[in-house]
Amino acid sequence: MLIVALTGGIGSGKSTVGQIFGDLGAIVTDSDQLARDVVERGTTGFDQIIAAFGDEVLKNGDLNRAALADLVFKDPAKRKQLEQITHPLIRKAFAKIVESAKGDSIVVNQIPLLVESNHNYKFDHVITVSASEAVRIERLLKRGMNLTQIQQRLQAQSNDAQREKISDSIIRNDNSQADLLSDVEKVWELLQVKNKNKS
Ligand code: ADP
């Protein structure tokens, strides 16, 4: 089993890379998706958040994620409180996926905010998908975001240099999708070798 972290700034192409790894045979998880799953209505995460933050983070019986994000964005203590609820639950959900995977699997976990969240999980391999800011902005505009939203996101995130510093592999994604596929395939071969040597 090889546990891999896959990170990259918004618009770099990490979801695309995650999908390719999935096609190649990896088990792919997404920390953002896990973060949403653990606070769905009916979960203990949901109950804990309502107990901590009250009805103002509810909308039609569901969690009002925008209101919650707003609340913790303005108040670091509340943000910490939220993370103390969600982080253990996300870790547990991830551990469950790993436990149910076959022994020789390669598990790729997409973690957009790997650098920012001070992850202390020991990954076997860390991959950053990088692309120039101009290329990323162009992709995000195409995806329907406006320039102000894009600038805000870019400013809130760490930069490629910070991500690359903690990475074992860097996948540059400034070119075509075909180039990307061939680069991801190369990293996949490396992961397979590393996985074999580990066992
Ligand atoms: P992220 O998950 O890092 O935000 P995505 O994988 O969603 O990025 O990619 C952002 C957008 O750019 C998507 O619409 C995707 O299809 C497109 N994209 C990704 N890589 C390339 C590429 N090499 N050439 C053209 N478009 C790309």
Automatic annotation (TrEMBL):
A GO BP annotation? coenzyme A biosynthetic process
- Annotated PROSITE patterns: DPCK
User: Which CDD domains does its entry note?
Assistant: DPCK
Enzyme Commission number, as recorded: 2.7.1.24
* Enzyme class of the recorded protein, top EC level: transferase
User: Pathway of this protein?
Assistant: Cofactor biosynthesis; coenzyme A biosynthesis; CoA from (R)-pantothenate: step 5/5
Its main localization is: cytoplasm
Question: What one GO molecular function would you report for this record?
Answer: ATP binding
Q: Show the stretches that span the lipid bilayer.
A: none
* Binding residues for ATP: G11, S12, G13, K14, S15, T16
Q: Which reaction does it catalyse?
A: 3'-dephospho-CoA + ATP = ADP + CoA + H(+)
Does the keyword Metal-binding belong to this entry?
Answer: no
Q: Which family does it belong to?
A: Belongs to the CoaE family.
User: HAMAP family from the entry?
Assistant: Dephospho_CoA_kinase
UniProt protein name? Dephospho-CoA kinase
Source organism per UniProt: Candidatus Nanopelagicus limnae
Q: What is the lineage of its organism?
A: Bacteria, Bacillati, Actinomycetota, Actinomycetes, Candidatus Nanopelagicales
- What is the name of the gene encoding this protein? coaE
